[in-house]
Design a protein that fits this description.
Number of domains: 3
CATH topology of the largest domain: Calcium-transporting ATPase, transmembrane domain
Shape: elongated
Strand content: 5-15%
CATH architecture of the largest domain: Up-down Bundle
Radius of gyration: 31 Å
Order of helices and strands: EHEHEHEEHEHEHEHEHHHHHHHH
Number of helices: 15
CATH superfamily of the largest domain: Calcium-transporting ATPase, transmembrane domain
Number of strands: 9
Helix content: 55-70%
Length: about 425
């Protein structure tokens, strides 16, 4: 009768979390053969595990639960279990399927290795040439491959990988020379944090570009549309210069310092062919730019028709100037996440909050202080006019929220059809 058997291989006592992993992967606990040792008996645990494996019938499925997949015991432990037809090594809270290339009855072809790479996460007893083949198998599958290594025989695979990472403390000079980067503390967790930081930096670059382009398209639409309709210029050159130097630059810098989103490591890897404007970002930039431009034109029309009374364009230009600046400052908060803005803390980026408050104060000062108003050719606004300006400036928030909701709905339907 075929049985599921489990070997507990540990330096000491196993955590309850590891036993929970077994129950999650296999349901009820199978027959457990415990093998425990201290850190001073590394060879002893390998020998004990070997004897247990030899005692099991060949048709049994063997699971090894271990916290030892590191250091010198790694190759010995994996080589012991590789001779069985179906083996799972459970390390910590992760279940890993093991494939032994060296023990295969027949050498795997490149096509077979590519298929194996799709379902295997641990490869046992690999020779240097196998490492290179595994790297190329993942690359042929469209993956970006990072390879870590410390020995001379790791150098070819480090060179073949998209990102070769050598160990700084224990790595050989040959490995360091072949690698693209050197891990100075020899800690794998540092790689994880580097990936997190890299994704955060890439996201922040996209946020800043998204904000700047949508804002500048809004300014272009404001001037260009007025020219096409034969209207007076809604904004003077000095006012456009102020918007670009103050209300654009401060939020863009703050977005570059935005902290990483909570789910940044839960996203799948970005495809190689994906551009900076991929994922619908290009179309969103155009739509949001047109929205900002139309809001500024609407403010100009309301100010000129209802408050200038046909006597010049001062109030209309002042309201358009204020709406264009304030709507961009508020729009910057939309850039912080592709999820709903209400799912994150508005105060999560203190630099953006500071940029917003500084921009509002500077914009209000330019309009309300007489010496500055004379320079920028604007006039102080009444309470009613400020209320209209505020209402128009906040329009980007609900519009972009609807845009994000639509994108989430389309993505969900696209995933269901795949």
């Amino acid at each position: 009768m075929r049985m599921n058997r489990i070997i507990l291989a540990s330096h000491g006592s196993l955590s309850a979390g590891m036993l929970d992993t077994v129950q999650m992967v296999m349901g009820d606990l199978p027959n457990v053969c415990a093998v425990a040792t201290t850190r001073d008996e590394t060879e002893n645990i390998v020998q004990k595990t070997s004897r247990l494996l030899d005692s099991f019938p060949p048709e049994d499925t063997v699971y090894i639960l271990t916290d030892m997949l590191n250091g010198s015991v790694n190759n010995d432990m994996l080589s012991l279990v590789a001779k069985y037809p179906e083996i799972t090594v459970i390390c910590g809270m992760n279940a890993c399927l093991v494939l032994s290339i060296a023990d295969a009855e027949e050498p795997l072809t490149d096509e077979e290795l590519e298929q194996a790479a799709k379902r295997c996460t641990v490869f046992a007893r690999v020779a240097p040439e196998h490492k290179v083949r595994i790297v190329k198998a993942y690359q042929n599958g469209g993956h970006i491959v990072a390879m870590t290594g410390d020995g001379v025989n790791d150098a070819p695979a480090l060179k073949a990988a998209d990102i070769g990472c050598a160990m700084g403390k224990n790595g050989t000079e040959v490995a360091k020379g072949a690698a693209d980067m050197i891990l100075t503390d020899d800690n794998f967790a540092t790689i994880v944090e580097a990936v997190r930081e890299g994704r955060s930096i890439y996201d922040n670059i996209r946020k800043a570009i998204h904000f700047l382009l949508s804002s500048n398209i809004g300014e272009i639409i404001t001037i260009f549309a007025a020219m096409c309709f034969g209207w007076a210029t809604p904004l003077l050159p000095i006012q456009l210069l102020w918007v670009n130097l103050v209300t654009d630059s401060l939020p863009a810098i703050a977005l570059g310092l935005d902290p990483a989103e909570k789910d940044v490591m839960e996203r799948p890897p970005r495809k190689q062919e994906t551009t900076l404007f991929g994922g619908g970002m290009g179309s969103r930039i155009v739509v949001e730019g047109m929205m900002i431009g139309m809001l500024a034109l609407l403010a100009f029309g309301i100010g000129h028709v209802y408050f200038d009374h046909g006597q010049g364009y001062t109030v209309g230009r002042t309201m358009a100037f204020a709406v264009l600046s304030l709507s961009q400052l508020i729009h910057a908060f939309n850039m912080r996440t592709e999820h709903s803005l209400f799912h994150i803390s508005v105060l999560g980026n203190p630099f953006l909050v500071g940029a917003f408050l500084a921009g509002v104060a500077l914009q209000a000062g330019v309009i309300m202080l007489a010496p500055l108003a004379a320079v920028f050719k604007v006039c102080p606004l009444s309470a009613v006019q400020w209320l209209i300006v505020s209402g128009l400036a906040f329009v980007p928030l609900p519009v972009v929220e609807l845009e994000k909701w639509k994108d989430r709905l389309l993505n969900r339907r696209r995933e269901q059809t795949l």
